[in-house]
Structures are given as C-alpha cells and as structure tokens.
Amino acid sequence: MSTTMTRAVALGCGSYLPQRIVQNDDLSATIGTSDEWITKRTGIRQRHIAADGELTSDLATRAAQDALQRAGVGVADVDLVIVATSTPDQTMPATATTVQAKLGMTSGAAFDVQAVCSGFVYALSVADSMLKNGLGSTAVVIGAETFSRLLDWTDRRTCVLFGDGAGAVVLRAQQGAGSPEDRGVLGSALHSDGRLNNLLYTDGGPSSTRTTGLLRMHGKEVYRHAVTKMTFVASEIFGRFGLSPSDVDWVIPHQANARIIETVAPKLGIDADRVVLTVGMHANTSAASIPLALATAVADGRVKQGDLLLLEAVGAGLTWGANLVRW
Q1: Active site residue 48
Q2: In terms of pTM, does the model score above 0.90?
C-alpha cells in the first residue's frame, strides 16, 4: 500500500547582484591589504556592493522576479513570501512585506526569518513545513542582504569577507510518494547555541544602542565552529534518511570562506568536484549565499532535475543547519 506525502517542490530559482563590483585591489589601496592576502586566506576575489539608495528589498524583489520567471509562475499564484535577512530595510515592518508589495501581491502572508548566515536554511525549512501543513500552496523563499552596511571598512579582518546580493527559490506543494526519490525538500536539521553569540555579532541594536552597530568577529573561533558544525549537521541529516555522502549529487554550502568549504568536504568524504563554490565571485553574502550559489549551478547546468542536494550553513548566533533537497 503506497503512502503519499506533500512535498515542497522547487520549480525554479533566481538571483540578483548589484552592479558595483569591488575587487580585492580596490580594497588594498585603503586598508593596507593585498589581493594575495585576501585570496590566500578566503578564496575571495571580488564582491558586489549595493548602490546608494538600493535596499535589501530591492535586491530581494529582483531575485524573486527572476526566480518566478524561470519557474514559469505568476505573482498571482504566490501566497507566501519569506525573506531571510539580517539587514532589513527597517526595524519594522518585515522586509518581506515590502517585497510582497513590490511584487504586486495583494494577498497571502509575508514575513522575515533572522538566523544570519543560516537564514536561508531556516527559511526553507519554515516554508517546507507551512506548505506541508496547508498554510500556502506556492512560496517564494528569498535570501537577501546588504551586508556592506554593517561593515567597519577600516577593519581588514572583516570588511574583505562580505558582499551584497540576493537569491530566491519558488516552491510549490505537490504530492510525492513519501520516499527519498521524491522531488522537493526531503528534510531539514536546525540547531543553535546562544552561548556562542559573542563570536560573531554587531555591536549595536534598536534596544541597546538605537543603532544597527558594526560587525565584529573572532575569526579563528568562527572558523573552528564552522568546520565542526557543518560536518556534524551533514552527518546528522544523512543518518536520519539512511543516506550516505555518495548519494548526494551536489553540496551547496554557505559561501563564507573557501578554506572552510574545502576543509568540510573531505571530512564528509565528498569530492571537491561535487561542491558548488562561488565565494570567489560573490564573497560572503550571508543569508543570500546559498540561493546565489544554487542559482549559479542551476543556470550553468551543473544542477539538474532529480539531483540530490545538500544545503548547509553556519552563522552568527551561533546557528547552523542543513536541508536535503531533491531538485
């Protein structure tokens, strides 16, 4: 006797990057660093920076429009918008409601998810749960950031690492057979440990300093936790579904640092040629990094329908998590 299950199936994805590109050499003239120093330690060669007046909601809307077009889905069919971001347009209301209005939606639900660099993994799991529970039929899940506005541009330890951008995925509730061969989000694993929130944070906020604050980071500790936690959560989700790393076609990790990604993959027994790496071109775009990398890999033909994807991230909080998705 067969058992059916509602799955949140990805119909398409899209992206948007601001026009302004800042190369490593551009930074070396102002903060006493060099292209060689940045590239060797991070793998980053350039980053996109939002223009004056270009908001997180603008980036998110452009990425959503791109995803909807590629998915062949009209705005009228969307009833759920979730934006993962740490750089909202305003303290309130949610940036997702602004995106909803810019898309021309007049109904449905829209809200933000804040888990910093793990934000898209969290948002995807929330959308999956809502679609499975009938709280919508078609969702646009967006990761969007203007992280450049949280940076201390005199601190070469942090300002070289981040960039701006947005990526989006369109999901639709469809019936599957309830097996790992189904298309869609197969499952998620989410974690956090607030005792570690002083490793990566901003030194301000509405209820403390009435400012956004600037980003501060203890890089060595963040690196260590990123490697261990991304390795752990991948192994956890494989075990939950009785899968092994060899079953995964593509790993699409949070694009924080090439060294982190290149360290985690061998620990999982996954060859580098099955890992999508875009940090060199986009830098760390926080919640936008996974959907940006996904959109790149779909557009260039690496990710094909039926491929099994592992999405994984670690971010400030600390937060970390993973999604298994059959594309």
Answers
A1: no
A2: yes
